[in-house]
Amino acid sequence: MAYIADKPTPPPSADELRARIPGWGADLDPADRPSFPKEQAQDLNAHWTFPDEQPEPEGGRERSIEHGRLTPVFGTAQPLHGVSGAIRRYAYARFSEARAAHWLLLLGADRVEAAGAHLRSLGSRHPDDPITESGILAERRWAPLAGRRGRVDARHQWIDPLLVAGPWILGAVGVFVVARRLRHRR
Fold first, then answer.
1. Which of 46, 118, 152, 179 has the highest local Cβ count within 10 Å?
2. Chain segment 77-126, per-residue pLDDT in tens
3. pTM confidence score
4. Residue-wise over 44-56: b if at least 16 C-beta within 10 A, else e?
C-alpha cells in the first residue's frame, strides 16, 4: 500500500542486490554519497499511519492509470479547462506514463494552451509583442555574433528565428487567407 508512515517491507540485502544487479554497490561508502545523512531512519513523530486525505474536487482529478488512487495531497490552483484540459484528461485516462503518446499529448495540450493565450492576448488592450518580447532587438543591439560564439547550441541557431517568428507569420498568413476568402464571397 502506498503512502504509509512505515516502510511496508524491508529492502533486499546488499548481497541479494549485488548478486542480482551487475555493478551494484559502487557507491556503498557513505563518504561518496552526499545524501547519506538523509538516508538514515528517523523518528518523525508522525501522528498518523496513513496521512489525512484531501477531499477530491467535484469534477474529479486526473491521475496516472498506474496508480490506484490519488496522492493524499494534490494541487487545485489551476484546474483543467477548455480544449487543452480535455487533451490532458484523455492522456491521463488512456495512456500509461511509460508511453510516448501520454507525454506527446501533454506537450500538445501545452501548445494548445499557449495558442489560446496568444489569441486571448490579441483581444486584450495589451496584446503580445513578438518583436520586443523575443529579444530580437536586444540581440541586434548587444553584439549578436559575439554573443553566439562558444554556445553549445551553435549548430542549430539557424532555426531560432523560425521557431520564434514562424507561428506569428503562419498566423498572419492564415488571417490574411481567411479575410481574402470572406471578401471574395461577398
1. 118
2. 788 889 999 999 999 989 988 899 999 999 999 999 998 988 888 888 88
3. 0.54
4. eeeeeeeeeeeee
Question: What is the tens place of the pLDDT at every residue in 113-165?
Answer: 998 988 888 888 888 887 777 777 777 777 766 766 777 777 777 887 788 78
SS (H, E, C) 55-107: CCCCCCCCCCCCCCCCCCCCCCCCCCCHHHHHHHHHHHHHCCCCCHHHHHHHH
N-terminal to C-terminal alpha carbon distance within the chain: 67
Per the rule left: phi > 0, alpha: psi between -120 and 50, beta: everything else, 25 is left
Task: Quote the crossing angle between the two packed helices 160-185 and 100-122, to the nearest 10°.
Answer: 60
Q: Locate the domains of the chain by residue range.
A: 81-145
Question: What are the CA-CA distances from residue 122 to residues 39, 106, 116, 119 (Å)?
Answer: 52, 25, 10, 5
- Say if residues 38 and 86 touch (Cβ distance below 8 Å): no
